[in-house]
Amino acid sequence: xxxxxxxxxxxxxxxxxxIESLSEQLAEHSFKPxxxxxxxxxGWVSPLGRHSEELVHASSGYFMVCSKRQDKILPSxxxxxxxxxxxxxxxxxxxxxxxxxxRSSIKEEVIFSLMPKAFSRSSLQFAYISLRxxxxxxxxxxxxxxxxxxxxxxxxxxxxxxxxxxxKNLPIDLMTQWVxxxxxxxxxVLGEECELRxxxxxxxxxxxxxxxxxxxxxxxxxxxxxxxxxxxxxxHERVEFLLDEKMAVKRLxxxxxxxxxxxxxxxxxVAGQFDVDFSIMTLELSQFVEALMSALGGETESTKP
Length: 305
What we know:
Elements: E1 7-11, H1 19-27, E2 40-45, E3 57-59, E4 62-73, H2 76-94, H3 100-114, E5 119-130, E6 135-138, H4 143-157, E7 162-164, H5 171-181, E8 188-198, E9 205-209, H6 216-223, E10 226-235, E11 239-244, E12 249-254, H7 256-264, H8 270-295
Antiparallel strand pairs: 1-6, 1-7, 2-4, 3-4, 4-5, 5-6, 8-9, 8-10, 10-11, 11-12
Helix pairs in contact: 2-3, 7-8
């Protein structure tokens, strides 16, 4: 349940949601497995998995939801093998060449016949709505996956006044400045990893891991005009993460102190532990996001509610 990536979105106006209303809306779009001829399907499941049937887990103004996506796996190599067999059989039996149009039609028939036998792959996408902070926080490594969840959420609850959270200062400029000067604010410190990109040559990339980012080698790259597009940081000795130029937070890791705090609380069941973990995580992330936005110069006026 502990988030490893953050895609952050701002509600541009206050929203009125209750656990009852949200649960009812999600229930109408609950997950159902793919039909025999469906390539993919998505819907809502309980964040607690088999340990609960509730589609929303609420705690102190935070609503956790979980979207499940199922995709049929039908490798092109398998389709092509069956296609070639069909084409060869027809050409041999009828002593004629198959046209491109007919070949395409045969391929569609092959796919149709193979679909019921295809394996399925499922994935879960977690997110939470913070009524306190007016934010939607999605545990997604890419913007595309986050947008899929938002689209599914809009289909369930209607229109959502959402836009990506945007800082006044470009992360790429500030990250470059931080590495150049070694001076950060709000209890942020440099990690040991970064990615440098050339301003003049988009193919020019330098990736550094387990490096002293204050070394002459790194600083010399910056003097030649390169900029920092990804940067490992630690906040308050509690959260480690990688920040990229689009303000996405990746490889998020909570400190042992936070994990131990969650483990110390005595609970009787899985649902109770989930609630403890969720409460601690959302409290930490609320403070973290606020500090990150402050370090980036605050939020642009266009995204404030």
